[in-house]
Each structure stands twice: as C-alpha cells, then as structure tokens.
Amino acid sequence: MTLYVSDLDGTLLDAQGRLAPSTRAGLIRLLDEGLLFTVASARHVSSIRQILGDLPLRLPVISSNGAYISEMASCQHELVHAMAPELARAVLALIQRHGLMPFVSTHGPKGDQLFYQSVHNEAQQSFVDERLRNGDPRLRHSARLADELRDPAVTFVVVEREAPLAALQAEIDALCGDAVETHLAEDLYKPGWPWLTVHDRRATKDQGIKTLAERYGLQDREVVVFGDHVNDIKMLRAAHRGIAVSNAIAAVKQEAHQVIGPHHEDSVLRFIEADWRR
User: Is CB count within 10 Å lower at the N or C end of the chain?
Assistant: First the structure.
C-alpha cells in the first residue's frame, strides 16, 4: 500500500484554485476503494475544507506548510507548531524595521486568528478582500500587531515586491538561523507580488508527513508526493517517490523522480489512478 500526499495550489487544483469536478469525482471513487490520500498545503485547514469539501479523507491534512496537522471536517488541530514568543517578537520587529507590514497567524485560547494592522499595496488588499469574500473566521484588524503576540504566533506572511522580500528573508535567516523556516514564492494568482512566509523550524511538509505516518501506523508505507513550488522541495526529497507537475519551478523538477503533466489537466489524479491500479 502507498500513501499519496499532494500539494494543492499549482499541483492538484486548477488555474483558478479550484478542485476540478473530474478530479473530485476520481478521488472520491478511489478513496471509497481504500486509497490512502491526503494533502499538504500552505493553506490553512479552513481554506482546505472550503476547497475540498466532500472529499472523504480518512487522514488529517497537513496545513500551513506543516504548522498544523488537522482534521479537515472539523478544522480541529491534532498538532500545532508555533514559534517561541521571543522568536516571534524578534521576527515581527525585523519585518517592521524593513518598513513592511505582515499578516500574523496565531493560535491560542480563542482558536486560530489572522491579524493585520494596515494595508500598503494592491496585493495585500487582495489578500484581505479574498478572506472577507470567503468568510474566513480568523481575520481580525489590529491596532498594534505586537499586542497580538500574547498568543503563540504560527505564521508570518509578508506580501511585497521580490527585492525587498529577498532582503528581508536574508536578514531573518541570518538572525534566526535554523530556528525558523522561510519561503519566498510567487503568488500563482497575482504574479509580481510574491509572498514571504515565516514558520517555526518544525513546520515543514516533510516533517508533517513523517509525523502523520507515525501517528497513524503508516511508517512502513511507500510515500508518493506531488508538488510544484519551493515549499514542496523538502517533501520531494524525503519521499520514496517525488512527482513534479510540468508547470513546477525548475528546482522542484530537479528533485523529482518523475515529471507528469500540468496541474490543470487532472495530471495528479491520472497518475494516482494508474499507479493505484498497477
């Protein structure tokens, strides 16, 4: 038996960030037959649930790049990897010294919350507008982000042009070393406005898959993963077979055991179905 784990955006989802009806129907059929499948995404579990909806996943999902392992139907977390308080305060201070303003996800007694203080460009406004449109229950406006770090910080997201984000990423990596995991990646739906994400060092997809396998007695299963972007590289390296879609960035294709078709042609589903039947 094989455990299949797929990234969402740019991999399993179509160009509009949706699960195509044909992919949905195929996965439901295979899951009903006993397929072991889940997803590992940069999205929060509430967003994953909104997209995947009625998929009968028997395994939890790995969300926020491995910061959470969560039961999709209830959005309840089995595991949360938050930053140490002093580390989160140092990261926030450095971001603000660069004249940038992040979105900050926290997890505490009130549950998951997503704070923003002010909006400085069109991409940040799109970030807020999308979550308002989708009724994201986490979204909160804050008069002062530093006050919100009373609860453990899980993720910082900074949306800007590439040059200032690259400079910020270099300073965060120099300041924090291997205490954090950072990713600078293009927004697939708003080119020219990449995101810099900052997590605790334990929040990676490969570590999430390993923990999931240990918790559910799947350590002896072959692991096959699918990805397209920089935050998928570690899980491709750790898997028995790492599969890249043809629209993946070059660094992902270099790590892959195989390159399949593009994300908008049911390529992940077609691979899984053929592999499963074999």
Answer: C
